[in-house]
Amino acid sequence: MNSSFNIESFVRPNIQQLTPYHSAREDFEEGLLLDANENSLGAPFTDESDLHRYPDPSQKKLRQLIAEWRGVRKENTFVGVGSDEGIDLLFRIFCRPGKDRVLTVPPTYGMYTVSANIHDIAIDEVLLDEETFQPRVEAILDTVTPETKILFLCSPNNPTGNTFEADKIEQLVKKFPGIVVVDEAYIDFSDQESWASHVATYPNLVVLQTMSKSLGLAGIRLGISYAQEEIINYMMKVKAPYNINKPTAELAIEGLENWRTVEFHIEAIKKERKQLRNKLEELNHVEHIYPSDANFLLVKIDNARTIYQQLAKRDIIVRYRGNEPHCDSCLRITVGTPDENERLITALKEIA
Ligand SMILES: *Cc1c(COP(=O)(O)O)cnc(C)c1O
């Protein structure tokens, strides 16, 4: 995809013509604020963060920090209620319900399909290569129709755990005639570089990240999208005016300010990922453990469904993925603390 890619031609006509809601806090943030019908007496408890005032609709401070953290421009960042909101907005901006199509590469994250179904968008699936779990570039490009608007890639991929080869992602971004989403929810557990800085080069690239995994903040619901400014502008227009609440924005900033601790956690999880792999490898009923650049392992194990149920009886919950293509008899196991992993291994030995 070269720089002549014209984003307008991909945007739904109703969105092109949309006049966005104009929120009061877009104009003024300080002064005698009698413009937004907020409660002048405040919240019903002691509150230092001015919760009776609406939050910043364009999240300037948080987005500036994110931009500095990832080495991109603030204008290339969007923050939403989890990655879910970013995915939902892309459908609403680019896909005409009942007419357009998207492309996914299973086995992969289930939310792309759920969101497509919600928006009445048809899905074409091109399975990953069975041996390598890499995307099959030619087969993907052969499946494109004039109605195909978005290609979803997840790297490192959930549930397989592998990173897609940079060369394959690059070919797809260059040749796919639509939006290419690279979901990097697990990028901080990988040694591969993020694609976030490439949004300046590729006008059709959208990179998704989240504070739910490496930052350990799944509870605050904060997802980040990176894209060229025109796409970001559309996302800002279509989102709910005050999508990110003040406590979330404040905790997200606190998370970034504690990045050294995050790095420490990432290193510990990567180390533990290796330990867990070694211990699982010793078990007779474990057939294969796939390479992982994420904070989980995909494990092929005899009688996966029974083992899943037996573990659950012992209050140890993993994810059964045996119904996914190429994932016969597989469990997806999140890397826990050393104690948690020890409990898991002990239980697996008992069950076998
Ligand atoms: C966990 C995960 C996310 C995170 O979603 P949030 O809505 O940000 O919590 C996104 N993509 C993938 C592939 C994931 O596994």
Lateral arrangement of strands in the main beta sheet: 1-7-6-5-4-2-3
CATH hierarchy, class of the largest domain: Alpha Beta
Largest sheet, strands/sense/barrel: 7 strands, mixed
What ranges have pLDDT less than 50 throughout 5 or more consecutive residues?
Answer: none
Q: Could you please say which CATH topology of the largest domain applies here?
A: Aspartate Aminotransferase, domain 2
The H-and-E topology, N to C, reads as HHHEHEHEHEHEEEHHHEEHEEH
Give the class from helix and strand content and strand pairing.
alpha/beta
What's the end-to-end separation, in Å?
52 Å
Average residue pLDDT: 96
Helical proportion? 25-40%
Alpha carbon gyration radius: 22 Å
Mass-distribution shape: globular
| Tally of structural domains | 2
Number of strands: 11
CATH architecture heading of the largest domain: 3-Layer(aba) Sandwich
Strand content: 5-15%
